[in-house]
Amino acid sequence: MPLKPFKYLLPETRFLHAGRLVYKFKIRYG
């Protein structure tokens, strides 16, 4: 399942996902 169309149609979701990952790491290793 290619994520190329999603990357161009919904760029905000990528930032939200990255932010969520950073938040998880902050809670875990913070």
UniProtKB/TrEMBL annotation:
GO terms for molecular function: DNA binding. GO terms for biological process: homologous chromosome pairing at meiosis; meiotic attachment of telomere to nuclear envelope. InterPro entries: MAJIN (IPR027816). GO terms for cellular component: nuclear inner membrane. This is Uncharacterized protein LOC283129-like protein.
